[in-house]
Amino acid sequence: QVQLVESGGGLVQAGDSLRLSCAASGRTFSTFAMGWFRQAPGKEREFVAEINWIGSQISYADSVKGRFTISKDNAKSTFYLQMNKLMSEDTAVYYCASRSGSVWDYWGQGTQVTVSS
Q1: CA distance 62 to 17
Q2: Is 30 helix (H, G, I), strand (E, B) or coil?
């Protein structure tokens, strides 16, 4: 089992920045990759960004490329999502997740990000 706990959400204005954190605990040694997803009201959950355990592979959704940066600190078993130039369309509940194979096995409880225009 892997436990994931997000933090760092909040209410900001358009153009502001915010950093989300996700602290992992448990059997993290089996983790292959970690990622961020988001779900806006009335919409399906969507992929935001992903990073593999050694940090050699990173990918982003087109909607956040150039604005968001995913990173990790293995020593702290924590990974981050730095969000810059936030827009109202970024308003959503953000979830962190981890996977040991092709399926996202574990999920955090979610943190709300609200961007006012």
Answers
A1: 18
A2: helix
State how far the Cα of 31 lies from the Cα of 74, in Å rounded to an integer: 11
| Residue 73 burial by Cβ neighbours in a 10 Å radius (0-12, 13-18, 19+) | exposed
Which two structure tokens, joined as six digits, stand for 97?
Answer: 């997740």
- Written as tens digits, the pLDDT of the chain (117 aa) is 899 999 999 999 999 999 999 999 988 777 889 999 999 999 999 999 999 988 889 999 999 999 999 999 988 889 999 999 999 999 999 999 999 999 999 999 999 999 998
Q: What is d(CA 24, CA 70) in angstroms, rounded to the nearest whole number?
A: 15
